[in-house]
Amino acid sequence: ADGGPGDRRSLLPDPGDAGLTRRTDPDVTPGRAAALEALRRAGRGMRLDLALDDAARGMDARERAFARTLAYGVTRLQGRLDHLLAAHVRGGLDRLHPQILLILRMGLYQLLYLDVPDYAAVSQGVEQARNAGQGRASGLVNAVLRAAGSAGAPESAFPDPQRDPVGFLTT
After folding, report:
1. What pTM does this model have?
2. Integer Cα distance of 82 and 74 in angstroms
3. Rounded CA separation 99/23 (Å)
């Protein structure tokens, strides 16, 4: 709910208002759905902690903890995740629908940094793409997550701190 001091509700138009986030599916876990919604709201200017509180309201403690871990992890490692994803998205990340990019970040974070089975991270990302009204992007999500997950995150994939200190610090 909208609330008092410190509650920064976004004044930016929401791409989700076009109906892209309305459909829900029992095949997507509540924690993943809440993390996606919180990240979407945070991208519009809302504080992530408030967005998570709203999105995870009423969930059991385990799902709520998963949503928090996923949302904060994706936010913390966004530069690193984007760097790894960019190698697998033809045309660059800028061409992706913002919600599909969030889904890719969440999926890759699960593949690389959480103890989540690969098939679960990929299939949940595909379902979230379908639920976002971006069904044709589900194939892209599947292919990119499989390729990026297989490639992993070797140190050689990131900028060298001596040759590119800014690139190194942003990944």
Report:
1. 0.81
2. 10
3. 13
